[in-house]
Amino acid sequence: MFSVLDYPLIVFVLSVILFGLSALAGDFCRRRVAALKQENRDDFSVIQGASLTLLGLLIGFTFSMTVTRYDQRKNYEEAEANAIGTEYVRAGLLPAADAARVRDLLRSYLDQRVLFYGTRDWSHLRQIDSTTAQLQANLWSTVQTRAVAQPTPVNALAAAGMNDVLNSQGYTQAA
Questions:
Q1: What is the pTM of this model?
Q2: Residues with Cβ within 8 Å of residue 113, at least 6 apart in sequence
Q3: How far is Cα 116 from Cα 164, in angstroms, rounded to an integer?
């Protein structure tokens, strides 16, 4: 499904064209209406100043919210990367066969997460989400099987780390 909002350059060009046409329409209307009288010009200046002040505040608050949101998302992505890296190291605490399987699955999972951040195509995103969900199920199944079979603190640590990996993905995508 095509959405013009997925292409910021097109949005920019269309916005410039639209603003230019709006300026031309405003100039056309101004020429057709009689000039502003001196007694009305003072009132117009006050209204113009107030409108521009409100516009400046609106733009300032918008940028502030945008920067805050960007920082929050960046922090969540960093936390997700740290969780994946920590679980990769903790996988070494598992028996060799499980450790190798978890590490292979984590590599595939990381590849899917990187693809998620680099893709704009909705159909490809659905495919990535599907693959990611399958990898999450496999990762959890591998760690859960070991933790249930041998409920030791070391296996619990590996399971808790996997839980952090799965949760961090949810936090990042919700942001």
A1: 0.70
A2: 80, 84, 132, 169
A3: 19
* Long-range contacts of residues 104-113, Cβ cutoff 8 Å, at least 24 apart: 105/135, 105/138, 105/139, 105/142, 106/139, 106/165, 108/135, 109/84, 109/135, 109/136, 109/139, 109/165, 110/84, 113/80, 113/84, 113/169
pLDDT along the chain (175 residues), means of 10: 80 94 90 77 87 95 93 91 92 90 94 89 88 92 88 89 88 73
Maximum CA extent, the chain: 88
pLDDT at 34: 73
Residue 170: predicted pLDDT: 81
Q: Would you kindly state where each structural domain of the chain is located, as residue ranges? A: 1-33, 75-174
Q: Which residues of 40-75 are buried (b: 16+ CB within 10 A; e: fewer)?
A: eeeeeeeeeeeeeeeeeeeeeeeeeeeeeeeeeeee
Amino acid making up residue 155:
N
Tokens of 146: 């070991």
